[in-house]
Design brief:
Distance between the termini: 10 Å
Radius of gyration: 17 Å
Number of strands: 0
Strand content: under 5%
Largest sheet: none
Helix content: 55-70%
Number of domains: 1
Length: about 180
């Protein structure tokens, strides 16, 4: 599978096109970074990004977004690949979310309980939130999905990527396959 096929598949999974900046980054070979740019967003913002990505892809029987290093991927895309307008929309959405939570719940997003955090994400996802918040949540979902499934954990543990099948079995039961890459 090449990067173009991966982008097409991710777009199909997400139900929408992937933004141009994220497409350029993935096509250029960007994956979850090591230490090259993580943390430039600042501790407070990175903590919020970490919580959001963990809510979107939590650890289950496979590692989640945190184990895959998705917050560092978001930080890298934001700092190195986003255009100024995309950074502004991201920042505006993050600020709008913070203001909304403070006004309604009198706390920060991180101080809210998990059920409240999830209900806010769902409301934004189904269009029941202000446009800046809805765009921000869509962006975080996009970055989380792309970052996770282009990481080694997402490809090898979640999707069980096997570059060379061991043998051909013509009447293989799909129920026995488990998680697999598909087209």
């Amino acid at each position: 599978m090449n990067r173009r096929e991966l982008l097409f598949g991710l777009g199909m999974v997400m139900g929408a096109a992937i933004s141009a900046s994220v497409s350029r980054a993935v096509l250029a070979g960007v994956t979850v970074p090591g230490e090259n740019s993580a943390g430039r967003m600042g501790d407070t913002r990175l903590a919020l990004i970490s919580r959001l990505t963990d809510l979107i892809i939590p650890a289950t029987d496979t590692p989640g977004a945190l184990a895959a290093g998705v917050p560092a991927f978001v930080d890298l895309i934001y700092n190195d690949w986003y255009r100024e307008q995309e950074r502004k929309e991201f920042d505006d959405g993050m600020s709008a979310l913070a203001q909304y939570v403070a006004a309604i719940y009198s706390c920060t997003f991180l101080e809210c309980d998990a059920d409240t955090q999830i209900s806010m994400l769902v409301a934004a996802d189904v269009g029941q939130a202000a446009p800046p918040i809805a765009r921000f949540v869509h962006t975080i979902k996009e970055l989380t999905t792309v970052g996770y499934y282009t990481s080694e954990i997402g490809a090898r543990q979640e999707m069980i990527y096997q570059p060379v099948p061991i043998h051909y079995k013509g009447d293989y039961l799909y129920a026995d396959a488990g998680r697999q890459w598909s087209r």
